[in-house]
Write a structure and sequence with these properties.
The chain is about 35% helix and about 15% strand. The protein has about 220 residues and is α/β, with parallel strands linked by helices. It is globular, with a radius of gyration of 19 Å.
């Protein structure tokens, strides 16, 4: 169904501005694009990860990491007090090219090593994943928003021990200005087109995402 342009009071047509022959239009600013996008994976460590409400987030975080690597985009991984919470889970640790950034602050954005890495990559957009949604993830997202970054949070790539905590954290972050999205949405936004040279590799990763009851089934 095409755009139905209503008339103004003076009889002239209203509607979107003329494109003067342009064949495309600019992306909405909330749509991810490869240049200037960075992935953050927060504190997916053995002891704390084991007590999450479920493990839906884990395969999605690993797929995101692999996709960002395929696309040549930066990834920052953190650990919180590894002596107590354990190391990064093996499923993720085996993918890392560098050791995780160890922090004491709940917000990654208040850690000097993290801020230094962020400044080196100079992203405009940050995709934030990890645990727990209502503590380290939430505080990081809020601080990044305050610093002027566009932040996206895939709802299926964050978790808390209690589902209610995650639900209210996502609502709070959305209200604060974060884009609450999904892993699959983020991946296809980064591809932009089926003509992307990375389309086959990333779409194959999408097919690895669990599908089924309670798993964020695709329809």
């Amino acid at each position: 169904m095409g755009y139905n342009s209503p008339s103004r009071r003076d009889g002239t047509a209203s509607g979107p501005p003329a494109t003067k022959g342009a064949r495309t239009m600019q992306h909405h600013p909330e749509i991810l694009g490869p240049p200037g996008t960075l992935l953050v994976i927060i504190d997916v460590q053995e002891r704390i990860n084991a007590v999450m409400a479920d493990q839906v987030h884990l395969p999605r975080i690993t797929v995101l990491h692999r996709a960002f690597t395929t696309l040549g985009l930066p990834v920052l991984v953190t650990e919180q007090y590894p002596k107590g919470l354990g190391p990064t889970v093996p499923e993720l640790a085996r993918l890392l090219d560098a050791p995780p950034l160890v922090k004491d602050t709940f917000s990654c954005a208040r850690d000097e090593a993290f801020l230094g890495a962020l400044e080196r990559h100079r992203p405009h957009r940050v995709v934030v994943t990890g645990i727990e949604a209502h503590v380290c993830v939430a505080q990081t997202v809020l601080d990044l928003l305050h610093a002027g970054y566009q932040v996206q949070v895939p709802h299926d790539a964050v978790r808390s021990r209690r589902k209610a905590d995650m639900k209210w954290a996502l609502r709070r972050l959305h209200a604060a200005g974060a884009v609450v999205t999904s892993t699959e949405s983020a991946l296809f936004e980064l591809l932009d087109s089926c003509t992307s040279p990375h389309f086959k590799a990333v779409s194959a990763l999408v097919k690895e995402l669990p599908v089924g009851k309670g798993q964020g089934a695709r329809t």
